Amino acid sequence: MSDDLIFMMGSYEARFPQDRNYVESHLWFQPQGEVYRVGFTAYSVRLLQDVYFLDWTIDADTAVRKKQEVGEVESSKALSTLYAPADGRLVAFNDAVLDDPSLINTDNYGAGWLFEFATEAPTLAPAEYLELLDAGWEATQRIIKGQMND
Question: What residue stretches are annotated with the Lipoyl-binding domain (predicted)?
């Protein structure tokens, strides 16, 4: 396996394995047979900070449309709605992360995956995803600084 790609978020190294692809909504997609296993990227985990609650608002084996609400995640930063990353079918949830959402913080590319998803939506190669992050990093920093000054 190739070395992880690294995106610097200030002094924090956000790592991105090259054995999976990514989407603009800051999720990773890793092929698992006929479906993709999906989870939060290091970038999204860093912005969320400590995740301590996760809930799904739909059932497993449900067809979804891109940007359809599928759940909520609560962290030390905020309560955030989770949306489907693309049109497809949400096949199964990771029960372990429902029982222990801290797995998202400690092992987001492994045991902290969120769900399995069947889709034909295009994804970004790791280098393309880092280009996307780089292009939006300045605006993201302004948002973060604004939140810290509230």
Answer: 35-118
